[in-house]
Design a protein that fits this description.
The chain has 137 residues and is mainly alpha-helical. The chain is 83% helix and 0% strand.
Protein backbone atom coordinates (compact mmCIF):
# COMPACT_ATOMS: atom_id res chain seq x y z
CA UNK A 1 0.00 0.00 0.00
CA UNK A 2 2.88 2.36 0.75
CA UNK A 3 4.31 1.77 -2.72
CA UNK A 4 0.98 2.69 -4.34
CA UNK A 5 0.70 5.80 -2.16
CA UNK A 6 4.19 6.96 -3.13
CA UNK A 7 3.39 6.31 -6.79
CA UNK A 8 0.39 8.70 -6.75
CA UNK A 9 2.34 11.38 -4.88
CA UNK A 10 5.24 11.27 -7.33
CA UNK A 11 5.55 14.73 -8.96
CA UNK A 12 5.74 13.21 -12.45
CA UNK A 13 2.54 11.23 -11.90
CA UNK A 14 0.79 14.27 -10.40
CA UNK A 15 1.87 16.44 -13.34
CA UNK A 16 0.68 13.85 -15.85
CA UNK A 17 -2.63 13.61 -13.99
CA UNK A 18 -3.19 17.37 -13.96
CA UNK A 19 -2.17 17.61 -17.61
CA UNK A 20 -4.57 14.83 -18.63
CA UNK A 21 -7.48 16.29 -16.70
CA UNK A 22 -6.90 19.80 -18.05
CA UNK A 23 -6.72 18.49 -21.63
CA UNK A 24 -10.04 16.72 -21.07
CA UNK A 25 -11.55 19.89 -19.56
CA UNK A 26 -10.19 21.92 -22.49
CA UNK A 27 -11.84 19.57 -24.98
CA UNK A 28 -15.13 19.82 -23.08
CA UNK A 29 -14.87 23.62 -22.95
CA UNK A 30 -14.19 23.82 -26.68
CA UNK A 31 -17.27 21.69 -27.33
CA UNK A 32 -19.30 24.04 -25.11
CA UNK A 33 -17.91 27.09 -26.92
CA UNK A 34 -18.85 25.41 -30.21
CA UNK A 35 -22.42 25.16 -28.90
CA UNK A 36 -22.45 28.76 -27.60
CA UNK A 37 -21.20 30.35 -30.82
CA UNK A 38 -23.39 30.48 -33.90
CA UNK A 39 -20.58 29.48 -36.26
CA UNK A 40 -18.57 26.26 -36.47
CA UNK A 41 -15.16 27.17 -35.03
CA UNK A 42 -13.04 24.43 -36.56
CA UNK A 43 -14.71 24.56 -39.98
CA UNK A 44 -14.20 28.33 -40.13
CA UNK A 45 -10.55 27.95 -39.08
CA UNK A 46 -10.07 25.26 -41.73
CA UNK A 47 -11.51 27.73 -44.27
CA UNK A 48 -8.94 30.36 -43.25
CA UNK A 49 -11.13 32.62 -41.11
CA UNK A 50 -8.53 34.59 -39.12
CA UNK A 51 -11.12 36.26 -36.86
CA UNK A 52 -12.42 32.87 -35.71
CA UNK A 53 -8.84 31.65 -35.21
CA UNK A 54 -8.10 34.70 -33.03
CA UNK A 55 -11.28 34.31 -30.99
CA UNK A 56 -10.78 30.54 -30.58
CA UNK A 57 -7.13 30.98 -29.68
CA UNK A 58 -8.14 33.47 -27.00
CA UNK A 59 -10.66 31.01 -25.61
CA UNK A 60 -8.06 28.22 -25.51
CA UNK A 61 -5.51 30.48 -23.83
CA UNK A 62 -8.14 31.75 -21.39
CA UNK A 63 -9.29 28.28 -20.36
CA UNK A 64 -5.72 27.01 -19.95
CA UNK A 65 -4.75 30.09 -17.96
CA UNK A 66 -7.72 29.66 -15.61
CA UNK A 67 -6.80 26.02 -15.04
CA UNK A 68 -3.16 26.96 -14.39
CA UNK A 69 -4.32 29.24 -11.58
CA UNK A 70 -6.62 26.49 -10.33
CA UNK A 71 -3.76 23.97 -10.21
CA UNK A 72 -1.57 26.43 -8.30
CA UNK A 73 -4.20 27.35 -5.73
CA UNK A 74 -5.94 24.07 -4.92
CA UNK A 75 -4.59 20.94 -3.29
CA UNK A 76 -6.85 18.24 -4.65
CA UNK A 77 -7.72 17.22 -8.17
CA UNK A 78 -11.44 17.63 -7.47
CA UNK A 79 -10.99 21.18 -6.11
CA UNK A 80 -8.87 22.05 -9.14
CA UNK A 81 -11.52 20.72 -11.53
CA UNK A 82 -14.36 22.42 -9.66
CA UNK A 83 -12.71 25.83 -9.51
CA UNK A 84 -11.44 25.51 -13.08
CA UNK A 85 -14.94 24.75 -14.35
CA UNK A 86 -16.32 27.63 -12.30
CA UNK A 87 -13.72 29.91 -13.90
CA UNK A 88 -14.62 28.57 -17.33
CA UNK A 89 -18.29 29.36 -16.60
CA UNK A 90 -17.30 32.93 -15.80
CA UNK A 91 -15.45 33.10 -19.13
CA UNK A 92 -18.66 32.05 -20.93
CA UNK A 93 -20.57 34.75 -19.02
CA UNK A 94 -17.93 37.25 -20.16
CA UNK A 95 -18.46 36.16 -23.76
CA UNK A 96 -22.21 36.72 -23.43
CA UNK A 97 -21.57 40.12 -21.82
CA UNK A 98 -19.32 41.06 -24.75
CA UNK A 99 -22.17 40.20 -27.11
CA UNK A 100 -24.69 42.08 -24.94
CA UNK A 101 -22.52 45.20 -24.53
CA UNK A 102 -22.07 45.61 -28.28
CA UNK A 103 -25.66 46.25 -29.39
CA UNK A 104 -24.63 48.01 -32.59
CA UNK A 105 -23.33 44.77 -34.10
CA UNK A 106 -23.54 41.02 -33.57
CA UNK A 107 -20.19 39.69 -32.33
CA UNK A 108 -20.75 36.14 -33.59
CA UNK A 109 -21.79 37.36 -37.02
CA UNK A 110 -18.82 39.74 -37.29
CA UNK A 111 -16.37 37.00 -36.30
CA UNK A 112 -18.00 34.56 -38.71
CA UNK A 113 -17.60 37.20 -41.46
CA UNK A 114 -13.86 37.37 -40.65
CA UNK A 115 -13.94 40.80 -39.01
CA UNK A 116 -10.44 40.53 -37.56
CA UNK A 117 -10.77 43.54 -35.30
CA UNK A 118 -13.71 41.90 -33.50
CA UNK A 119 -11.78 38.59 -33.40
CA UNK A 120 -8.79 40.36 -31.86
CA UNK A 121 -10.92 42.12 -29.24
CA UNK A 122 -12.54 38.77 -28.43
CA UNK A 123 -9.08 37.24 -27.96
CA UNK A 124 -7.98 40.09 -25.69
CA UNK A 125 -11.16 39.90 -23.62
CA UNK A 126 -10.75 36.13 -23.14
CA UNK A 127 -7.07 36.39 -22.23
CA UNK A 128 -7.42 39.49 -20.06
CA UNK A 129 -10.38 38.22 -18.10
CA UNK A 130 -8.75 34.82 -17.65
CA UNK A 131 -6.10 36.52 -15.49
CA UNK A 132 -8.78 38.24 -13.40
CA UNK A 133 -10.84 35.06 -13.11
CA UNK A 134 -7.74 33.00 -12.30
CA UNK A 135 -6.64 35.39 -9.57
CA UNK A 136 -10.12 35.26 -8.02
CA UNK A 137 -10.42 31.48 -7.88
Amino acid sequence: MLLLSSFWSNPLVESAGYFSVVILCLVVSMVLFEIVTKYKNWQEIKNGNIAVALATGGKIFGVCNIFSYSIEQHNSLFEMIGWGLFGFSLLIVAYWLFEFLTPTFNVDKEIENDNRSVGLISLIISVGLSFVIGASI
